[in-house]
Amino acid sequence: MILTSQEERFWFVRNLALGLVSYMGATDPPVWVENFLHYPSTPSQKGTTQIQETTDIFGEIYERLLYMGGRIISPSDLPEDERRYALAREIIVALGGSKHGRKLGLPQFIVPYLTELQDYFARILLAPDPMIHAYRKEGGEFHDFAHAFLIPHRIAEICWQETTLQ
Question: Tens digit of pLDDT for each residue in 83-96?
């Protein structure tokens, strides 16, 4: 276990998520995490969807997850906003379980605070604060925020409050 404060953990995870947003080339909401994974689950599929290994530079991310046998499982019967949030939460697990992530010690950093870091990472990945600030600057209102970013309303409330405090 790597001893860090919550502020340090959030700083690291925020920058990790913003780096992925930049890598994906996302400049406007919504951030399509499904494109990052290359194998989005669709509501028409029954049961669960297994997101397979990719062949791009992030392919090794899926070499071995911290759990679940090297697969990201996402229930296909979730509404789109909930499914996207579930996928975003799993990406940090995949990063930690990658060969490079293990060499960097990410599992020791992530696992003791897994739920807290997954939630924070997913919020930043799906609703990066620079995009929220731009959305507000362009006159975006809270009542349309969850729809614009395709995130669950409960998560939209947290993101909106967090950026209000900045």
Answer: 899 989 988 888 88
